[in-house]
Design goal:
It is built from 46 helices and no strands. The chain has 817 residues and is mainly alpha-helical. It starts with a helix and ends with a helix.
């Protein structure tokens, strides 16, 4: 009995630990885990500390460091920001946060950190370096130099400033100064990396013999095999550029003598033989190595690379499997196998599962693995985790820039909607390899989407010089020519494509049909779509395209037979019912705009719901139909169900907000828009829909009777972002003007209302409303006569518009005064 009581007493004593004691215990454990690099365990203990003490800034910063070690960069950023919020004057923390934001290309936020640091301490060396690097991101090279000079005045041997300064001076073609700084650099820190930097500079200035001397010094100073290989390869590249293949081979063989067990270097030797068209020597190197080391994985991995490069992927995968049987934890073998599997079996879930397993194992064994980080970045792109992917890929590029990393980083920025940053990365990929057609296609598409059709056409033509039969580039060229109003060449470009060939992808056919539609060549468009339907008669995208063609051709009912036939062939295909339901919804009654065939549309959508009860898309369509039929309550039920089924369905948030706004439930509408904008992926909504959500929320925040300063600040931020996405939309201009008016900046508001009025249709209620807003701004700026004139014009513009009674009252008040 006493033993039981003792146990109870112990439990009570432990359970009665104070929060402070539990914090101290968790913090002590966390410190121990950090010291032993047990990051996952440290994370748990630090989370325990923060749960008990949410305002513990030091614990949040430590958690940020731990998450960074675990490569959970998005969460690390959040914790660093919370730490800085709690201790805003900790400049070292701000510098760490700014550097990570720079890696994530969150330039505005990183600039804010640098500005704060230097405002508090103008001589803060790390703050000056951060600001210099930020200016480099914007290609403001001249502005970088004062910061770097100040760093060197404070710390003359700062190698980071010397290296960056030399690069900047070389970029500005101030060669004497760049060379002098390089000499200082190699004197302060005579290592391989710095001599390679010097050699690269000399080589770019055609000072080949001096460059050779610098590279040879880099070889001499190499502290490990990796550095030695890098230096030797620099010499190889230099000799290859000079056409001195014998000297290049001599360098490779000399390096091989000290790196017989270095598989990467042996791969470089085989690549050299392939480039110099000596495949027999390449294979001989690899087979000799396999025979020399029969119980090692490395030689087999080199052979697998060779097999894959020669177009033998199945042989390569078998060889890698043999290598991993010998050494299951070989990082290079695991990563290479993951890459081959990903490239050969992208849509195979079983293969993808093995890829994820291989990458996770590599990073568990070596969290700092660059290739592991690159591979994980690639997988994060597949999972549409774009911000996390961008941070990983940027870290890889900082260490080892190459065309594929630049291309994938550009793809990540595209997914984040940061098109300017994406364009910069695709340009970097093309600098590395001008023949990278994937980067060229993306760049042309970006130019086209931003309205720069001339640049899009130029990039497409460049790509076609490399591969004249590249069909995607021909389509991009045709689209650009349509935008440039060169219908003749656009048609010729399309006509040159073999759109009837069986190997033509369906998506490509449908794009071609859309371009023919833009050219009003309806027969050509119809022929292309019909060829696509021969390829796949029940394809919903092709059927939708056919509906579009017939609608533009003035025969909107002609496509219905094809849709009906597809449903007969696949009566369990929910997408086809959604398509037909949407088709019926497209017919509207004159006057009120209600659907002409609501029953037919409803029957099809309910059938789609029955076939796919978990489809969020179906619920959105049902909600739209109910809204068109005047049943807002049922529409909101459908939109809420769509969000419940898929919280990432941005269209559901948008439509819900619009219905609530129309009902006058403005706070609820604002909450719907806010819920969309606060999603990490913003619901996967396109730029236009996203801009509309921003615009609508900005209006709701600013249009309150007495908006708070916080509401107006947020409204301004949203309206400006919306204006950036939709620069020519008069509704967006009007909203931004209204926010400026509410913020008591009528001079800025006036120009925005003028812009909106110029774009609206004369006589429209929206134009009248903007005139009313303009009048209020003139009054606020001290010009009552101009306000009276605009109020008269507003009242003449439209018989009815929102705010007409207020406009009439304002006119009477101003005239009386």
């Amino acid at each position: 009995m006493k033993r039981v009581v003792a146990g109870v007493l112990l439990a009570i004593a432990f359970g009665c630990q104070s929060p402070e004691e539990r914090v101290a215990e968790s913090r002590q454990k966390a410190d121990a885990y950090v010291a032993s690099e047990q990051w996952a365990e440290a994370k748990i203990e630090l989370l325990n500390v923060i749960q008990l003490q949410p305002e513990n800034a030091e614990a949040r910063f430590k958690l940020g460091e731990t998450l960074a070690e675990l490569q959970e960069y998005g969460d690390a950023l959040w914790q660093y920001r919370e730490a800085v919020r709690l201790q805003p004057d900790n400049l070292a923390w701000r510098q760490t946060l700014g550097s990570l934001e720079l890696l994530a290309r969150q330039i505005d936020q990183a600039e804010a950190q640098a500005a704060y640091i230097l405002e508090q301490d103008p001589d803060h060396v790390d703050g000056l370096m951060l600001r210099a690097r930020l200016r480099g991101q914007k290609s403001e090279f001249d502005d970088m130099l004062p910061d770097l000079e100040k760093v060197l005045s404070l710390s003359p041997d700062h190698t980071g400033a010397l290296a960056l300064g030399a690069r900047v001076l070389a970029t500005l073609e101030r060669d004497d100064e760049a060379e002098a700084m390089l000499e200082r650099l190699v004197k302060v820190e005579p290592n391989t990396a710095n001599h390679l930097l010097k050699g690269t500079f000399l080589s770019s200035r055609e000072r080949k013999e001096e460059a050779i001397a610098a590279y040879e010094k880099a070889v001499e100073l190499a502290k490990d095999q990796t550095e030695r290989r890098t230096a030797h390869l620099s010499l190889v590249n230099l000799f290859m550029n000079r056409g001195e293949t014998d000297r290049a081979e001599e360098q490779l063989l000399a390096a091989r003598e000290g790196a017989e067990r270095d598989e990467e270097f042996q791969s470089s030797l085989t690549r050299f033989y392939m480039l110099t068209k000596q495949p027999e020597k390449a294979e001989q190197v690899l087979r000799e190595r396999v025979q020399s080391y029969p119980h090692e994985a490395g030689p087999l991995i080199g052979l697998a690379r060779f097999q894959y490069a020669l177009g033998r992927p199945d042989d390569a995968l078998v060889t890698l499997e043999e290598a991993l049987q010998i050494d299951p934890k070989n990082e290079d073998g695991r990563i290479l196998r993951s890459e081959f599997l990903l490239e050969q079996h992208l849509g195979d879930e079983e293969a993808l599962a093995e890829v994820r397993k291989l990458i996770d194992e590599v990073l568990a064994d070596n969290p700092a693995s660059l290739r592991g980080q690159f591979a994980q970045g690639r997988m994060l792109l597949l999972d549409k985790k774009y911000e996390e992917a961008s941070i990983l890929l940027r870290r890889v590029i900082e260490e080892q820039p190459d065309e594929l990393s630049y291309y994938l980083l550009g793809t990540a920025y595209l997914g984040m909607g940061q098109n300017d940053l994406a364009r910069a990365e695709f340009l970097s990929a093309l600098r590395e390899n001008p023949q990278n057609l994937a980067a060229r296609r993306q760049l042309a598409a970006l130019y086209l989407s931003s309205g720069n059709a001339a640049a899009a056409a130029r990039e497409a033509r460049h790509g076609l010089e490399t591969k004249p039969d590249e069909q995607s580039l021909r389509l991009l060229l045709a689209e650009a020519l349509v935008a440039l109003r060169d219908a003749e060449e656009a048609g010729q470009t399309l006509d040159s494509l073999d759109l009837a060939g069986e190997e033509i992808p369906l998506k490509l056919r449908l794009r071609a049909a859309a371009i023919y539609l833009d050219l009003a060549r309806f027969d050509a468009a119809r022929n292309v779509v019909e060829a696509a339907l021969e390829q796949d008669p029940t394809n919903a995208a092709a059927l939708q395209s056919l509906i579009g063609v017939e609608a533009r051709a003035g025969q909107p009912t002609a496509a219905l037979a094809a849709v009906n036939k597809a449903i007969e062939a696949q009566p369990e295909n929910a997408e086809l019912y959604r398509l037909r339901g949407s088709y019926y919804m497209g017919f509207r009654l004159p006057g009120d705009g209600k659907p002409r065939f609501p029953i037919e549309a409803q029957v099809d959508l309910l059938q789609a719901e029955q076939l796919e009860p978990e489809s969020s898309r179906t619920q959105v369509m049902i909600g739209r139909l109910r809204n068109l039929m005047g049943s807002d309550r049922q529409a909101l039920v459908a939109f809420d169900k769509a969000i419940e089924l898929n919280p990432g369905n941005g269209e559901a948030y948008m439509l819900k907000g619009a219905v609530l706004e129309a009902q006058g439930r403005l706070d609820a509408a604002a909450e719907a828009y806010r819920a969309l904008l606060e999603r990490p992926d913003r619901g996967g909504v396109g730029d236009r829909a996203l801009a509309i959500a921003m615009n609508n929320l900005a209006w709701l925040l600013a249009d309150r009777e007495k908006p708070s300063a916080e509401d107006l600040d947020r409204a301004l931020e949203l309206a400006q972002d919306s204006k950036e996405l939709l620069p020519d939309d008069p509704n967006v201009a009007d909203t931004l003007g209204w926010v400026m008016y509410k913020r008591a900046i009528p001079s800025a508001a006036i120009s925005l209302f003028r812009e909106a009025i110029d774009s609206y249709q004369p006589g429209s209620p929206t134009r009248a409303l903007s005139r009313y807003h303009l009048a209020l701004s003139y009054e606020a700026s001290g010009d009552p006569q101009q306000a009276i004139q605009e109020l008269k014009l507003a009242l003449q513009e439209a018989e009815a518009f929102p705010g007409r009674e207020d406009a009439q009252a304002a006119l009477e008040r101003l005239q009386a005064s």
